[in-house]
Structures are given as C-alpha cells and as structure tokens.
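Progress narrative, work stream C.
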Amino acid sequence: MKKKFAVSFLTIVFLFSSLSWALAIPTQQRPDDGEVAPPAHGQTEKNQVKTGGLGLETSAESAVLMDAASGKILYDKNMNKSLPPASVTKIMTLLMALEAIDQGKVKLTDKVETSENAWKMGGSQIYLEPGEQMSMKDMLLAIAVGSANDASVAVAEHIGGSHEEFVAMMNDKVKKLGLKNTRFVNANGLTAEGHVTSAYDMAVILKEAMKYPLFLELTSIKHHELRGGEFKLDNRNKLLWWYRGTLTGKTGWTNDAKYCLASAVERDGLRLITVVLGVPEIRGHYKESMRVYNWGFAKYRGVTFANAGDKVRILPVGKGLVDKVEVIAGDRAAVTVLKGEDKKVAHRIELPEMVQAPVKKGQKIGEMILTIEGKEVGRVALVAKHPVEKASVFTQIYRTFEEVFNFGK
C-alpha cells in the first residue's frame, strides 16, 4: 500500500511539474517592440544576470551607463565595440534635424514632400505615398514616436538635398563629437554593411540631442495621431510606461542588431543615460536597461546647482541701451557622486563685476566651477539671457549729464 501511494505521489508531482514547465513556455515569440506587461520589480532571470566585480552584469553584448550631466562613465561592458544599432540610429537623424531648425535652415512648418526613394523604405513606416506632403513637425513625430523609416528618409532629403548628403552630414557630426566607433550608411538604421556605432558613442549622441528641449518633447510622447486622426502612433519605448522618471529613448531591432535601446532617466536630481546593444532576448533591451538603471540609482546621487536656463545673477552693463543683463546657466550644472559623498560637492561662480555692451544673447560671460573635495570636476558656461545693444554716443553723453545733474541735486 505504501509503495503504491509513493508511486502515485511521485506521478502527481511529475505531472504537475511538466504542466508548470509547459505553461511557462511563451506562446508567441516575435521580434517586435509591442506593448507587453513589464517584468516584475527586481526580477532576475536565471542564466541571464550574475553578480560581478561591480555588482552588475548584463546579457547585452555592449552596454554603458553615463552621467548625463558630466558624461562620466559609471558602468560599461564592451562600450567601444562597434555594432549595428538598428533604429537607435534615428537619434542622430533627429539631432541633425533639430540642429538645422535651430540654425534656421529649415522650419517645423516646412512642407516635406515624399520622394519615391522614401516611399519604398520597408520596416516601420507611416506609409507615405510619393508626392505626399507633411509638415516637418509631423515627420519628426513619426520618427520619434513611430520610428518611421520612410519619414526618416523624407526628412533627410529635405534637409540634405539627398539622402546620401544627409548621411554625410551625420558622419561629419560624428567627427565633430570625437567619436571613433561610429559610421552611418543611412538615416533610419535599416541593415547595411558598415552601418555601426558603439554604446559609448550613442550615449554621447543622445547626450547631445538632449540639449534640445524639442527632442525631449518629441521622444517622450506616448501616443500621436497623424492625418487628422486616421493614423495612430504608439511610442516603441515602453520605458515611458514601465520605468519612473524616463525622459527619452529610442528602440531598435533587426536580425543583425538584435534588441537595442538608448534612453535617459532622471530621479531625484540624478539624470542617467543607458545604452544597451545586441540584447538577444525578446524585449530584453527593456529589462537590461532597467537593471542597469536600478544599479546606478542604488549607488549614485545627483547634486544639482542649476538647471539650464536658471537665473544665476544680474550684472550691470556699461554703455548699453539697458543698464543690466540677466545671467543664466547655459547648461545643467550637476555633479554625480556615490551616495553619502554629496557633502564633498561644492561650486563657485566666476563672473566679472560688469560687462560692456554690446552683449549677444547666449554670450558667455562667466563660468560655474563644480568641485569634489576642492578638485574641479566640471565647468558650466554662464551666458546672457537676452541681448543688450550698445547705446549711441548721444545717449551716452546724455546719461553722463543726467548723472552729473542728479549728483548735483
């Protein structure tokens, strides 16, 4: 009787284990960025992540964690390895477009016409037709939110005159940024021989793009409608839903590139950039990015002295149409330190007592120096918020007489 009971019990355990194992197998595994339930908080998959010397390893072929304020590298794995980035490429496409807008070469209201070359792009698209026109802003939204390959080429042709010329501009920008492991062949990230970047290089490109408020605005939109609501876009970057503090990001996937994601997150004054390339697991680019961020936010703290555009001081202006100018931080002034070391951080401001007109908007007037234990770790330019024109000789003479008159009173 006991033997029969033991056999029956083992049989039940075996059947239950087999059923549980079968139910654990995903019913569908497809290489896309579709919206799915997020992984459980703090979840660690077996054989995917082990604890290393820094307390963190990742299944990404290449990864980097960067302090967005200083560009300091907090963690890396093969960060300089050249790999195909897939649609993460579009961060550079957006950066080039926003630079062209900032320089007055194009406008958000421009009508961008679709060429046959743009129309024939495959993959993610908004199904532009040859000759179809759409505003530059809507095209950029299609790229930032919908990862549209056809819109990427249409924008490239509008700005560069041709797709090839725009790509040459992208590679010129790569050189200006001092990046050594990146070469672009197209503006959308479709598989092409020699089209590569590295986790570090892409982090630098994302840091540069984040200087434009419009970039953060476009890439943080979760849903958008085109063509009067007929075409709906859902952002491919699911960190916007799943991870608190997500500011921006761009996903990518091809057979060659596997799963890729470049993103930025800010919590409690600490802004971090993470890039993961070559993640083999479906939707693993989200899991690995969150794992890297969790590690970073657990170890580091951000100390912010000023955000870009914050008023620092008001200075008198000599020989100007107005007698004072507001000085603002030209960039975010922040320092990242290990938790518990924030009291070692300080800053000092170097500004003249007075500036002489003319003063241009954005003109550098001084600097904010950031230090840790007295050692300089960074500088942020302090710039003029508005222009001040030089007063005419007649106005200056009149003011001199006025001062004398008022003094006499």
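Work stream C, second folded protein:
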Amino acid sequence: MAIMPGTMPGGWQAFLLALAVLASSAAAGAFNQYAERDLDARMARTATRPFVTGAFAPSLLWPLLIVAMLAAAVAVAAVATNVVAALYVFLGAVTYGVIYTVWLKRRSWLNIVIGGLAGSFAVLAGAAAVDPGLSPQAIILAVVLFLWTPPHFWSLAIALKDDYAAAGVPMLPVVAGNKVAAVASLAHTAILVPLSLLPLIYGMNWIYGICAGVGGALFLVRNVQLVQFPDKPHALTNFKASLVQVSLLLVGTIVDKLLFG
C-alpha cells in the first residue's frame, strides 16, 4: 500500500486488509501442518507441532475450519478494499497451501522457488487496495519478495540439511549440496538487491534508498561469506541477514510514504 502511487485506503480498510492477509497466511500455515504431519514427525525442528504430539487429532474438521478461515479472510479483503485485492489474498494462500505444500515440496527442489510467489501475492494485495491496476513500483517489490524467498529459505535448509534429508524433502542443499545452494542463493540476492533500488527512479525517496541499500549490502556480504563457507553457522547468519534486509526494505517503504507522501 505504501509503495503504490495514489491515496492509501482509510485506516480501518488498511487494518482489515492486513488482518485478512494474516488470517489467510494462518490458514495456509495450518493446512501445511495438517498435511505434513508425517514429515514433521521426522524433523527435530517440527517434532513438537500439535498434530505430531497428538495435542490436535487430525480429522475432517480441520480442513473444513481452515477453508472457512480462508473464505472469511477473502471476504473481509473484498469488503474492505476490492475484489482484486481479495483475489491476491486468496492466491497467496493457495500458492503456499496447495502448490508448495501439496504439489512441490515432496517432489522438487524448485518447491521454494515457485512457492515464493505466496509472499509476492501479499504485496500485490496491498498495492491493489490502492489501485487494482498496479504500478511499476508494486511489481518491482513483488518480484523482490519472489527472489528473496529462495535465499532466505535455502539458508535455513543448509542449516537444517540433516532434518530435511531424514524427512525425504528434496530441498536444494539435500539434492545438490551446500555449495550449490549457497551459489544459487547468492545469484538470487545479486539480482534482488539492485532491483530493490529501482523504485527510487519512480519517486521513492532517500529514506527508502538508505534502508534498501543498507539491508541489501548486508545480505550480499553474508551471501558471499556463505559461498565461501557453506556451513551451518554461516547459513544461519545469512538467514538472519535476510530477515534484516526485508524488514529494512518494508519499514523504509512505510516511513518514506509517511514522511514524503
């Protein structure tokens, strides 16, 4: 919403759209844990999730509740903003829940590459709330989020490689090794960082530029170090750098909008 040219929706509309994105994300995450309870049981990181421990008993009730939650989120987004924004909210959840979780995660190392579209749809939903026609700035930010997801998640996959191998999940470090995953991560980052600076051409100001530049530089440096030392400590450092980068980028976008309109 902040990066899109034009007048942002009113406070209650923005709040309801954010709530809708949160609820749709929660529905997708809940479905992920329901559908992957067998995988979660074989991974130390996920062994304490409620469907694994028995705190939640799997039954048909859960998918019904999850679908109802998603439907409510989409309806709220449509009422608060417009149908196009609601469609993006829906597509984000479906991309994560169906395309990533059901179709790709157990089958292909491309799972997280294509699954990264889920985050992009959240960006597009916010932009469509301002103008369903979108803009170059919004499309650029959506692509940046798409490119950001693989290096973010591959770093975690390198750190938890044994977990994914034990579960039989074909994450890139498992099927191709840590070095290949680190290089692929750097390639994505090397594209997304300069791309994240392009909104400066379309009217974003110096606050955005500083946040995007500092966060991007940190992410690039950590990615280079990961290529040099493709091990767990450097993977976790790069994972944290990815969080810093995306946080600075988004906060910079919002503060820039508030100060310069």
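DSSP finds 13 helices and no strands in the chain. No further action is required on this item.
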